[in-house]
């Protein structure tokens, strides 16, 4: 922790030199990413906390980390001895960042942040809240550049193409779709900040971020031009030829600011303030008309085309085969008296997936939580010092794969010995919520927040709950977390549309004892059209057995039992043709009806 205190001291020296009373360091980068290249992992560098979500605030004599319930246990451990206090977001009595600053600072004091790594909306929101207390908010200061002496550079790894056979559209077709959507909203241009949007529209991928096959760059799409702003060395001759063929011009990464500043007066920009940085937004000339709305790229990307969905179903079978072989190996290894650490199981699972066609890598850091570690929602087993898995208790395994033809995200909770009544009850309550989402039938125009209660009611009825969302959007050989849709208690105006991929993952977590989560991916589909309109539902596309030994059948309704047995049978029928006779027999034993 002495390293952390030294870094805080260096930052405070820089703050004093610039007359700054507090500095805010977020988790995102210049592209507002959830997962970032090393260059922009400043919050982790300054604090030692490496969870994917959180904000550090440093004043001249105090420091704090704000993060949500997924990371309370992890943050408590990683901040120990750092002099950085943990502020548990969402817990009654815990102040917001702005409330904390108002109690520590006085009117006229200056709070600063790097506006290149904040969305325009977030920057404006914080500025407005601080202004109530007379506190100034400056957004042009990257103080870490001055104190992070061995700071990594922007990644310059080469870009590669995502072929039409997987994408289902050429980049030229996608650009035209965007132009049509822009025109329908009265706009004729848009700026691209988010790297997953950039990858999607230009059919490119990269190696710049762990787990997410994206490349750092910006983009611009107007009526007559489409531009990719990227470090020139990243573009191979093959990629350049293909982009040029699809009408895409290539400009240096650093020219995005000057390009925006020089936009002519006939430009009508569609701007999503959640998906453009404060820095880029501030470069837009006054003479350009601004039309505010949700990014058309985000909306279009979320709705998968027929090729993508067809490929994804094949990927789910491929992934399910790998998981079946892994769980069979694990069960038999433990029965032989062998033991493995959580970290080792992560490596073994990756190895089983890697044998599959078109495998690129894991889609996120595997969460392998044995017993009490399963209660840490976003647990990452360290290489040294993690738990050893034995033939007792339960194991929570949340993992996923990136394939050229799809992205998977699945959680299974399995018993490694005969489970007790409390575990079986908790598991079945979570299962009931999972099945109710899977069975949901809802009118067109429904939002995820309107369905969330279905996943929680069985838990709420017994005074139980979980602190995370029930579902998030999932990319297609892209980020495992994407918008704009989700299923959670917070209100999100985005409607669920046909072709969207969303996770279905209720859970329950008993600190120090165990965690339970069941996660499948679902695709929104048309179920019925009546005189009252169109009704949608979910196709469950993930294929992996559920642990019968954890289910208390008496707690399930007949409808839930029917769904469960049908799902288990579909898993067996779909996967067994690609398994050996021995593997198929093992899977048959796991998928027998309740």
Automatic annotation (TrEMBL):
The organism's place on the tree of life at top rank: Bacteria
GO molecular-function terms, A-Z: metal ion binding; metalloaminopeptidase activity
InterPro entries, per database record: Creatin/AminoP/Spt16_N (IPR029149), Creatinase/aminopeptidase-like (IPR036005), Creatinase_N (IPR000587), Pept_M24 (IPR000994), Pept_M24B (IPR033740), Peptidase_M24_C (IPR032416), X-Pro_aminopeptidase_P (IPR050422)
UniProt entry keywords in alphabetical sequence: Hydrolase, Metal-binding
Peptidase M24 domain mapped to chain residues: 311-523
Keyword Ribonucleoprotein: no
All residue ranges annotated as the Creatinase N-terminal domain in the record: 7-130
Family: Belongs to the peptidase M24B family.
Protein name (Swiss-Prot/TrEMBL): Metallopeptidase family M24
């Amino acid at each position: 922790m002495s390293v952390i205190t030294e870094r805080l001291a260096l930052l405070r020296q820089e703050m004093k030199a610039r007359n700054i009373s507090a500095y805010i360091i977020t988790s995102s980068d210049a592209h507002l990413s959830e997962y970032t290249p090393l260059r922009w992992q400043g919050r982790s560098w300054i604090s030692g906390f490496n969870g994917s979500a959180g904000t550090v605030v440093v004043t001249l004599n105090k420091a704090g980390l704000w993060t949500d319930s997924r990371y309370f246990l992890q943050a408590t451990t990683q901040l120990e001895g750092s002099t950085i206090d943990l502020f548990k977001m969402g817990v009654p009595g815990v102040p917001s960042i702005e409330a904390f600053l108002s109690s520590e600072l006085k009117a006229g004091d200056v709070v600063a942040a790097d506006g290149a790594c904040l969305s325009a909306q977030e920057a404006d929101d914080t500025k407005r809240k601080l202004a109530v207390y007379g506190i100034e908010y400056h957004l042009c200061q990257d103080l870490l550049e001055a104190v992070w002496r061995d700071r990594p550079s922007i990644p310059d790894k080469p870009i590669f193409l995502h072929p039409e056979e997987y994408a289902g559209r050429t980049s030229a077709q996608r650009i035209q779709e965007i132009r049509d959507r822009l025109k329908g909203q009265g706009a004729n241009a848009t700026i691209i900040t988010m790297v997953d949007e950039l990858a999607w529209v230009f059919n490119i991928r990269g190696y710049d971020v762990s787990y997410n096959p994206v490349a750092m760059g910006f983009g611009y799409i107007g009526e007559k031009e489409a531009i990719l702003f990227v470090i020139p060395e990243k573009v191979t001759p093959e990629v350049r030829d293909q982009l040029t063929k699809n009408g895409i011009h290539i400009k240096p990464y650093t020219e995005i600011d000057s390009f925006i500043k020089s936009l002519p007066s006939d430009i009508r920009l569609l701007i999503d303030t959640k998906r453009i940085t404060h820095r880029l937004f501030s470069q837009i000339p006054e003479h350009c008309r601004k039309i505010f709305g949700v990014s058309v790229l985000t909306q279009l990307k979320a709705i998968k085309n027929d090729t993508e969905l067809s490929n994804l179903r094949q990927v789910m079978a491929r992934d399910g085969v790998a998981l079946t072989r892994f769980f069979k190996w694990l069960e038999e290894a433990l029965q032989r008296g062998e033991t493995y650490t959580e970290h080792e199981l992560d490596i073994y699972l990756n190895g089983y997936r890697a044998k599959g066609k078109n495998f690129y890598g894991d889609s996120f850091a595997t969460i392998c939580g044995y017993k009490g570690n399963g209660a840490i929602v976003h647990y990452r087993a360290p290489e040294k010092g993690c738990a050893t898995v034995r033939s007792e208790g339960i194991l929570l395994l949340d993992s996923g794969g990136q394939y050229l033809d799809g992205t998977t995200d699945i959680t299974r909770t399995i018993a490694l010995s005969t489970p007790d009544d409390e575990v079986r009850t908790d598991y079945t309550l979570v299962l009931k919520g999972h099945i109710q989402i899977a069975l949901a039938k809802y009118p067109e125009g429904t939002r995820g927040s309107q369905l969330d209660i279905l996943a929680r009611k069985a838990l709420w009825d017994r005074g139980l709950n979980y602190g995370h969302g029930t579902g998030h959007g999932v990319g297609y050989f892209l980020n495992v977390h994407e918008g704009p849709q989700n299923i959670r208690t917070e209100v999100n105006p985005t409607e669920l549309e046909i072709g969207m991929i969303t996770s279905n993952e209720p859970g329950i977590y008993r600190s120090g004892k165990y965690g339970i989560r069941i996660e499948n991916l679902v695709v929104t589909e048309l179920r019925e059209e009546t005189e009252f309109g169109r009704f949608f539902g979910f196709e469950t596309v993930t294929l992996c057995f559920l642990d019968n030994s954890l289910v208390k059948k008496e707690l399930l309704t007949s409808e839930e039992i029917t769904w469960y047995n049908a799902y288990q049978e579909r898993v067996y029928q779909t996967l067994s043709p690609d398994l050996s006779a021995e593997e198929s027999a093992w899977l048959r034993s796991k998928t027998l009806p309740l």
